[in-house]
Amino acid sequence: MEQTLLLSPAYEPMATISWRKAIVLLTLGKVEVVETYERDVRSTSVVFKLPCVVRLLNRFRRFRRQVRYSKQNIFARDRWTCQYCGQRRAIRDLTQDHVFPRSRGGRTCWENVVTCCVNCNTRKANRTPQQAGMTLRVPPHRPEWLPMFVVHLGREAPDAWRNYCFEL
Question: What does the chain look like in DSSP terms, one character per residue?
């Protein structure tokens, strides 16, 4: 299923959204289409080119005071790096680790969860880092902000996106 790259009014990548959501935003007048796919989308009365890249027309501000807790935000906070061995890994090779295990009353929160590779998570098992003889590189904390949206361009990413995304 084709995705659409959502840009800020300043042409900075913000997110990827479904092409359906992009068409809804277009019909509401909130975005303009910058690039399209070759494929058409038809409704009973209108034919659209499938949007590949859209840009918000007006800046909007979210009044969220705290960064939302999620697995992806944990990975972003820890820079996709295992907090035990220090190796940067692909997302498919990462997991979350509860520093103080849930089975012992540990909570799922910013201050108790870190990014961990599968090998270190298996080695630590159901113990604290001290009991497993492991040390944390950086203690877990609640971030005040997260780095900008990162799009990992792979082979499946449309070429049109490369004009708007930084390659790391």
Answer: --EEEEE-TTS-EEEEEEHHHHHHHHHTTSEEEEEEEEEEEE-SS-EEEEEEEEEESS-------SPPP-HHHHHHHTTTB-TTT--B--GGGEEEEESS-GGGT---STTTEEEEEHHHHHHHTTS-HHHHT---SS-----S--PPP-----TTS-GGGGGTS---
pTM of the entire predicted model = 0.57
Is 50 exceeded by the pLDDT of residue 110? Answer: yes
Q: Is domain 71-132 in CATH 1.10.1040.10, yes or no?
A: no
Residue 165: band (very low, low, confident or very high) from pLDDT cuts 50, 70, 90: confident
The domain segmentation of the chain, as residue ranges, is 3-61+154-163, 71-132
